[in-house]
């Protein structure tokens, strides 16, 4: 029990080379909104949680029950796993968290890891339907993106948990992709989450959610997500998220 | 051009007003302020500015009522967003412009500029 980040799973859970969907808080809270909507609409079962002394000492109460804000869900067939959090990831926890998760994904023999994230754009208020771009960590992941006709993010820096998640998966020879939906940098963005979910469905036909309700309730979701958005924006500034607007220098 | 971002903690008040999420950016010659105003229509947004402050009051289309809000566990209803910001530099109020689209209010506030010509000896 001396790991920095501990992934605690219920006993007896069987995974069948699952696709993992990761929705940790980031710009626009795209991953968190999308992952929690998928879990709710697909009625996935809570199968575990993540704990660490590096996380803020916070628990949440839902319908009177005490819950860990970092939770893991699965479908009943063991083919889908969803990892989400209702609190921001402190910058100091990014490395140990992504390392622990990648080790666990390796242990459960994950077929593909999909991180749902936001891609902050200055003109988001002028965009009706946000576009989604993909980043793959190896040849197989790139082929998967091509096969699903995803646009590629071809040049640029990526920063934060999903950047390290891609890297840690690469080190363990796991295929991982990030789906980045155009979003508001510092405002919760259910519209971007809806676009991201539509893209996730291309990779996992078992996920059959309709995003209509998400778009219809966007105003209320934005209100409920205000506090998490603020925590996340503060963490993001320490994670060099601003670099995502920069151009890399490599000559090519 | 240096972009300064400032995000202040949003809070709620018992009088039915909610502080919106907002962002202030220094764009050199102007200050750009955006507000996230979900459930608000353009005709229900009021913006007041003096030379150094900006106030936004935005009534929601329908009041939002939550039966239990946070640890206080009491019913709370919000009807409007309200926020007053002290601007980092004086601006020219009559030259300010605002756009409201998809629940986002963007206000452009030109800074007061007093140009002095410097001659070279």
The secondary-structure element order of chain A is EEHEEEEEHEEHEHEHHHH
Number of strands of chain B: 9
Q: What is the domain total for the residues of chain B? A: 1
Largest sheet strand order of chain B: 1-3-4-9-8
Strand order, biggest sheet of chain A? 1-3-6-7-2-8-11-9-10
Label the overall shape of chain A: globular
Structural class of chain A: alpha/beta
Low-confidence stretches of chain B: 1-10
Task: Give an overview in words.
The complex is a heterodimer of chains A (252) and B (121). By secondary structure, chain A is an alpha/beta fold. Chain A is 34% helix and 23% strand. In chain A, the strands form two sheets. Chain A has a nine-stranded mixed β-sheet with strand order 1-3-6-7-2-8-11-9-10, with helices on both faces. Chain A is globular, with a radius of gyration of 17 Å. The mean pLDDT of chain A is 90. The model of chain B is unreliable at 1-10 (pLDDT under 50). Chain B is mainly β and 121 residues long. Chain B has a single domain (5-110), classed as Immunoglobulin-like (Sandwich). In chain B, strand 8 and strand 9 (104-110) form a beta hairpin. Classes of the chains: A alpha/beta (252), B mainly beta (121).
């Amino acid at each position: 029990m001396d790991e920095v980040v501990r992934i605690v799973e219920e006993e007896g859970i069987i995974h069948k080379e699952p696709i993992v969907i990761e929705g940790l808080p980031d710009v626009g809270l795209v991953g968190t909104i999308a992952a929690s909507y998928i879990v709710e609409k697909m009625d996935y079962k809570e199968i575990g949680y993540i704990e660490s002394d590096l996380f803020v000492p916070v628990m949440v109460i839902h319908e009177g029950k005490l819950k860990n804000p970092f939770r893991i869900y699965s479908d009943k067939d063991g083919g889908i796993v969803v990892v989400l959090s209702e609190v921001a990831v402190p910058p100091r926890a990014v490395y140990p968290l992504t390392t622990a998760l990648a080790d666990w994904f390796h242990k459960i023999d994950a077929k593909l890891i999909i991180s749902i994230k936001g891609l902050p754009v200055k003109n988001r208020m002028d965009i009706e339907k946000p576009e989604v771009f993909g980043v793959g960590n190896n040849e197989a992941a790139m082929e998967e993106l091509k096969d699903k006709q995803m646009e590629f993010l071809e040049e640029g820096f990526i920063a934060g948990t999903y950047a390290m998640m891609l890297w840690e998966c690469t080190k363990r020879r796991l295929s991982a992709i990030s789906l980045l939906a155009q979003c508001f940098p510092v405002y919760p963005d259910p519209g971007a989450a809806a676009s991201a979910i539509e893209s996730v469905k291309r990779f996992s036909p078992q996920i059959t959610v309709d995003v209509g309700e998400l778009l219809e309730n966007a105003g209320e979701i934005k209100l409920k997500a205000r506090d998490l958005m603020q925590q996340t924006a503060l963490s993001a500034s320490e994670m060099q998220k601003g670099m995502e607007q920069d151009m890399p220098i490599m000559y090519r | 051009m240096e972009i300064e971002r400032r995000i202040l903690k949003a809070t709620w008040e018992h009088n039915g007003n909610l502080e919106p999420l907002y962002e202030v950016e220094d764009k050199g010659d102007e200050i750009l302020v955006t507000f996230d105003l979900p459930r608000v229509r353009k005709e229900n947004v009021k913006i007041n500015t003096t030379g150094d402050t900006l106030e936004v009051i935005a009534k929601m289309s329908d009041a939002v009522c939550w039966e239990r809000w946070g640890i206080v566990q009491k019913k709370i209803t919000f009807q409007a967003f309200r926020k007053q910001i002290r601007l980092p530099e004086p601006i020219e109020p009559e030259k300010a412009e605002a756009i409201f689209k998809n629940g986002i209010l963007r206000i452009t506030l030109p800074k007061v500029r007093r140009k002095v010509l410097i001659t070279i000896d």
